[in-house]
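Researcher: Next sequence.
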Amino acid sequence: MNVSIVIPVYNEAEQLTACLLAIAAQTVKPCQVIVVDNNSTDGSAAIAERFGFVTVLRERRQGVVHARSRGFDAVRGDIIARIDADSLLPPDWVASVQSVFADPAIDAASGAALYYNVAAAPLFNAIDLFFRRRLERQLKDRVYLWGANMAIRRRAWLKVKPLLCGKGGMHEDYDIAIHLQETGGKVVFDERLQAAVSSRRIDVGYRDFMSYVMVSPGTYAQHRIRRRWHMYEVVLVCAIGYLPARLLHRGYDPLSDGFSWSRAFSSRTALSRVDPTTNVV
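Model: Next structure:
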């Protein structure tokens, strides 16, 4: 099974080099790596072009949903792997994708998160994994996909593409899972797929953070799926845990790989990042 990796990119110059270096270190090489530049203004496309194994495509319609589709439509591999620009893949990630999809019944899969740029990362990882496992049990045949660490068979993508909503205000990766499951496709959570992701999503104001969190049950609500109520446990944890989590992110010291009170209360500004659920026109 050949694996093509697609990375939608909008102003990710700070993250993209490390992401592509991790792909270059894979023990099983992907047959294709596509970076889809979605009108970046920070030189993201130029960074991607420095890597000889990367194909850079442009998508002028703004929004990750459009960039994703542009990349997915260009793949030639049997399996379309999708990650974000801040995803750092372990060396055996492509091999793990192949292992998961050795089961012919599986149409799409996503996996676990390992957080970086945060103090007490093992605690973050344990809490995240607990709720992903819990949601897998509760959602059953309505398990979501997570765009920072997922893969889908190319034939499944071609089948589900005409059914997708293609709009903002929802998680486009959830939308793929929902419509794929409605056509009888099998979507799974598999812990063999692990990707490190930045904790930067917590480094925004409380209102913006909770608006982003609420998109998860909101996506299910727009599709009239009652099992969205199981997600409100996660919403509650995010609401309560926002302040300590942001403190651990802001206080992370990369030199000591620990926590620094001086960094936690420094006046540095957060990296500017557009909410991908709203950046759609």
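Model: The mean pLDDT is 95. DSSP finds ten helices and nine strands in the chain.
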